[in-house]
């Protein structure tokens, strides 16, 4: 029965994201206030599902409605979502490398879905700059959730976040991935939201931790790097 429910959820991104919010936000200390400010970077048209999922999650917690802002390079990237959501989300077109030029305020949650770090050699540098800008608008108690199709974007995204002075609280396979839609040249299965990163701004000096061990005692990073070497199923 559980397998059936999870399989059906893969077809419905809003249901998957509700479960992701339920799973990852409280577990890693991202406790949203009432009517939180939420920023989606590189939102595209999939922001429709993310917005719906977040409103359902907030309703289940009695936290009202989000003040939700979606950012993408060109207005064409979110045109369908803008029409569908009809004023529920504020959309802004602009280069997120200069996010603070056109986004103001502080956000309790930042969402980044499938950032593309590998099609250009400049990708990691660009996203590091975006994450540095993101840090400027992220509330001190807020957090970031980022998902990737495949390992080749996931690992560089983690490195870029850490270089932008974020503390990565979780890095690993998403418990609620979407369906596989293709395979990479190295035969890795590509799936929506396959990997997930949870991060907060680095505000205090890091405490020493056992190598490769996370706060809750397991080693998701180790699983990721073993997968990269072909030692676990991708």
How far the N terminus sits from the C terminus, by CA atoms, comes to 25 Å
Q: Would you identify the CATH H-level superfamily?
A: Vaccinia Virus protein VP39
The biggest beta sheet reads: 7 strands, mixed
Could you give the count of β-strands? 9
Describe the strand arrangement of the main beta sheet, using strand numbers: 3-2-1-4-5-9-6
- Uncertain spans, ≥5 residues at pLDDT below 50? 4-8, 206-234
Classified by CATH, the class is Alpha Beta
What structural category arises from helix and sheet content? alpha/beta
CATH topology: Rossmann fold
Number of separate domains: 1
Helicity, in percent? Answer: 25-40%
What is the annotated CATH architecture? 3-Layer(aba) Sandwich
Which outline best applies?
A: globular
Total DSSP helices: 7
